[in-house]
Write a structure and sequence with these properties.
There is one protein chain. The strands form two sheets. Strands 1, 3, 4, 5, 6, 7, 8, 9, 10, 11, 12 and 15 form a twelve-stranded antiparallel beta sheet that branches. Strands 2-14-13 form a three-stranded antiparallel beta sheet, with no helix packed on it. 11% of the residues lie in helices and 58% in strands. It starts with a helix and ends with a strand. It has a single domain, classed as Porin (Beta Barrel), CATH 2.40.160. It has two helices and 15 strands. By secondary structure, it is mainly beta.
């Protein structure tokens, strides 16, 4: 009987020690859910440009062979759509401090080009200008698809609670699509001819660039990640370039992302 009691006490003691040395499943699950930056997250991003896509201005082109005297004036098209971009974004964590972010953002751009062109030679012995005077008004619109990929460095470990900042560097590819143009032309103050709908030709249908930026990450009580950031892009060329029409190589934007 004494032996049985000793065995029972030993078994109970061992079970108690084993229970103390192991965390219950609920505790292990809570520990796993403490990651502030998820391994993979996805969401949507809204981007607002700090500089307009089109850099307007005026230029003059004078040649003697053939004789041409032309003035070109370009302005960006009006509307909030020229300043806003949006699209999906995704992030994958590589280490406790590094992650890779990628997105696809749709932007719209447009410009108006006024051309005032004199061709031919004026006879100085007459009061009439014998040159051909052509005035044209071109309105062009296009869609821009940007595909940025950046590497982010977070100032805190992904398991540390609270807001955190990050720095990012990477590259971006731009594709131009949906180019639409409408050009009205008047010759020698005659009847205006409307409309030539031949699309304007982009200088680069595919364009590369470099991206850098910084931002913050917050989390709300429902687990939604709110990520405001500032991003700078340096394009390696112009999307459109002709006469006084040119797109900016420097792009500055303020972005806010909601991810899950």
């Amino acid at each position: 009987m004494q032996t049985k009691r000793c065995l029972l006490v030993a078994l109970l003691t061992g079970a108690a020690l084993c229970a103390q040395s192991q965390k219950p499943p609920a505790a292990r699950k809570a520990a796993k859910e403490e990651a502030y930056v998820r391994r993979i997250s996805a969401g949507v991003t809204l981007s607002v440009l700090g500089l307009s896509t089109v850099q307007g201005g005026s230029s003059q082109n004078v040649t003697t062979s053939p004789p041409v005297d032309a003035v070109y004036t370009a302005t960006r098209a009006q509307g909030m759509s020229q300043w806003i971009g949006y699209g999906p974004t995704v992030q994958a964590v590589v280490t406790d401090h590094f992650a890779v972010s990628a997105g696809m953002f749709l932007r719209r751009m447009g410009y108006i080009l006024n051309s005032d062109v004199y061709t031919g030679v004026d006879n100085a012995n007459t009061s009439t200008d014998e040159r051909t005077h052509t005035v044209s008004y071109e309105h062009t619109q296009a869609k821009l698809l940007d595909f940025p990929v950046t590497v982010r460095y977070y100032t805190k470990s992904r398991h540390a609670p609270g807001p955190r900042g990050f720095l990012e560097l990477g590259g971006v590819l731009r594709r131009v699509s949906g180019v639409r143009s409408s050009t009205d032309t008047t010759i020698n103050d005659g009847t205006m001819s409307c409309c030539d709908t031949t699309p304007a030709t982009p200088a680069h249908r595919a364009l590369k660039g470099f991206v850098g930026g910084f931002g913050l990450q917050f989390i709300d009580p429902f687990g939604i990640r709110v990520v405001p950031e500032v991003r700078y892009t340096r394009w390696m060329g112009e999307t459109f370039s002709g006469y006084s029409t040119a797109t900016r190589r420097n792009q500055l934007e303020i972005m806010i992302s909601l991810s899950f």
